[in-house]
């Protein structure tokens, strides 16, 4: 069967076009390789900067934490003045928090792990733990070892039950507040827009 002139012409035109497509694919592949190299360099540079500034940040946070530990009533005041958390804090919770000297928040490396909260206390008459630990999203935590229980032998009703009770529907919201606002409170020298207002400094009793 003889090719019609128009079909033969179309066949001839397709050959150089195919070569152009192959050239484009080769070029795209080369660009992809170059981009991969750039990304690798970027990752290395980022890790170097992260380590450098991470060390600097940890040093400043350690100094700030040490300073806060010497301010009587800092954390009980921060929790009590928060418009949402204060609703969950009883007078007994306030007494417990007077022994709280530090709050630590540690970002966990695994992307789905979330973060770890650690509430640090002085020796106190309420529980034996030196620190209460809560890992958010993994839903694992250290139980609160109360020294005293109520008359029925049950755990005392307290704000700190949040650190070990995952049945609370709002536990995720509490975690977000503690990390994003109270932890930021420490980083921002005792002031947040939610708890203190834009220009109001946290007032700590002397």
Task: Give the gist of this structure.
The protein has 206 residues and is α+β, with helices and mostly antiparallel strands.
Report on this structure.
The protein is an alpha+beta fold and 206 residues long. The protein has a domain at 62-187: Arylsulfatase, C-terminal domain (2-Layer Sandwich). 47% of the residues lie in helices and 12% in strands. The chain has helices at 5-69, 74-81, 91-97, 171-187, and strands at residues 100-107, 114-121, 131-137, 140-141. A 4-stranded antiparallel sheet has the order 1-2-3-4. β1 (100-107) and β2 form a beta hairpin. It is elongated.
Secondary structure elements and pairings:
Layout: H1 5-69, H2 74-81, H3 91-97, E1 100-107, E2 114-121, E3 131-137, E4 140-141, H4 171-187
Antiparallel strand pairs: 1-2, 2-3, 3-4
Q: Main β-sheet: number of strands, strand sense, barrel status?
A: 4 strands, antiparallel
CATH fold assignment of the domain at 62-187: Arylsulfatase, C-terminal domain
**How are the strands ordered across the major sheet?**
1-2-3-4
Percentage of residues in DSSP E strands: 5-15%
Question: SS-based structural class?
Answer: alpha+beta
* DSSP helix fraction: 40-55%
Q: How do the SSEs run, as a string of H and E?
A: HHHEEEEH
Please give the CATH architecture of the domain at 62-187: 2-Layer Sandwich
The CATH superfamily title of the domain at 62-187? Nucleosome assembly protein
CATH class annotation of the domain at 62-187:
Alpha Beta
Coarse shape: elongated
Radius of gyration, taken over Cα atoms and rounded to an integer in Å: 29 Å
Number of strands: 4
Low-confidence stretches: 149-155, 187-206
N→C terminal distance: 104 Å
Mean pLDDT: 69
**Number of separate helices:** 4
Pfam family, one: NAP
Family: Belongs to the nucleosome assembly protein (NAP) family.
């Amino acid at each position: 069967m003889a090719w019609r002139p128009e079909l033969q012409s179309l066949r001839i035109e397709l050959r150089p076009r195919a070569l152009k497509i192959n050239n484009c694919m080769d070029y795209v592949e080369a660009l992809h390789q170059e981009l991969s190299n750039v990304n690798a360099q970027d990752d290395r540079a980022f890790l170097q900067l992260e380590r450098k500034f991470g060390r600097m940040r940890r040093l400043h946070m350690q100094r700030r934490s040490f300073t806060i530990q010497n301010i009587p009533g800092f954390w009980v005041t921060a929790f009590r003045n928060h418009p949402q958390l204060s609703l969950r804090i009883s007078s007994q919770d306030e007494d417990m928090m007077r022994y709280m000297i530090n709050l630590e928040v540690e970002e966990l490396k695994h992307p789905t792990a979330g973060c770890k909260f650690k509430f640090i206390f002085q020796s106190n008459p309420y529980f034996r733990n030196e620190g209460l630990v809560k890992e958010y999203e993994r839903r694992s935590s250290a139980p609160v070892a109360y020294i005293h229980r109520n008359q029925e032998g049950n755990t005392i009703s307290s704000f700190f039950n949040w650190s070990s009770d995952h049945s609370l529907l709002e536990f995720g919201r509490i975690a977000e507040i503690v990390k994003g606002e109270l932890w930021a409170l420490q980083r921002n020298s005792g002031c947040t827009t939610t708890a203190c207002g834009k220009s109001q400094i946290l007032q700590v009793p002397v």
